Amino acid sequence: MKLDKVIAVRTGKTVYRDGDSAIKVFDEDYAKSDVLNEALNQARVEETGLPIPKILGVNMIDGKWAIVSQFIKGKTLAQLMEENPDKRDEYMERFVDLQLTIHSKKAPLLNKLKDKMNRKIDETDLDATNRYELHTRLASMPKHTKLCHGDFNPSNIICGEDGIDYVIDWSHATQGNASADAARTYLLFWLAGDIEGAEKYLDLFCKKSDTAKQYVQKWIPIVAASQSVKGKPEEREFLLHWADVVEYQ
Question: Which of 62, 154, 164, 229 could form an S-S bond across to 77 if both were Cys, CB 3.0 to 4.6 Å?
Fold first, then answer.
């Protein structure tokens, strides 16, 4: 495999292209279990029939773990939004429709979202009172088994040259409540500094899914607390602020 064409750099990993393959190489200190779990998640999501890059292999390259998958030719939806601001509303519709398609699928072997959230809340720097409040709120939320991406944002969608929109990066995939997944996407827009986009997204998601906005907002402190554990240091304070907020108007 040739690792001379970098196509993406993310925290703890670098993605290369070699012909028709995309090779995601993880840093040496990246946990083997996390790499193998990501590959397993992707394989399980493949079985739903969703348009995602197919896993081709899991290898060791120069002492580093790597996941090899199908390379998709195209631009990310984030790139298209930036290049064509006049089409932003059209792209946002496309974005939400794709997320709703994901939520319509089942992947019963994936980890449960509620289990992951409970574990993450315990790992936060929040005090016992806040953790108790978050655990209590989480326990009160309905149990669903919908496929949730866990990091659904425009940079994780490749608009293929074949006219198909492919969803990448399934490392955070779980089965659970779709509104928790929507709350995560809402926070991702905020973290990117796109507050207007966050509000447009939430309005559109709630309209298309016939979900009360207040219901999605109830998930925001739970999701923010969960994300703060492995979030970037510069994002942690922001996320913990959201985690401290108990009620939204």
Answer: 154
Tokens 């997204």 sit on residue: 201
Q: Which of 95, 73, 207 is nearest to 154 (CA)?
A: 95
Name the average pLDDT for the chain. 94
Q: What is the pLDDT of residue 245?
A: 53
**Tokens at residue 119, please?**
């574990």
How far are the Cα atoms of 35, 169, 196 from residue 77, in angstroms, in the given order? 25, 14, 17
pLDDT at 166 over 60: yes
**For residues 245 and 134, what is the distance between their CA atoms, to the nearest angstrom?**
10
Nearest Cα to 231, choosing from 222, 240, 219? 240
Residue whose entry in the numeric block shows the structure tokens 């932003």: 88
**What DSSP designation does 91 have?**
H
Give the separation between CA 24 and CA 13, rounded to whole angstroms.
Answer: 7
**H or E element, residue 60:** strand 55-61
Q: Which residues contact 188 (CB under 8 A, 6 or more apart)?
A: 151, 152, 153
Beta-sheet strand order (sheet of 6-10): 6-10, 13-18, 21-26, 64-70, 55-61
| Sign of the four-CA dihedral 194, 200, 203, 208 | negative
Q: What is the pTM of this model?
A: 0.93
Are 62 and 16 in contact by the 8 Å Cβ rule? The answer is no
- Pair 27, 13: CB distance under 8 Å: yes
**Closest to 51 (Cα-Cα) out of 23, 70, 32, 29:** 70
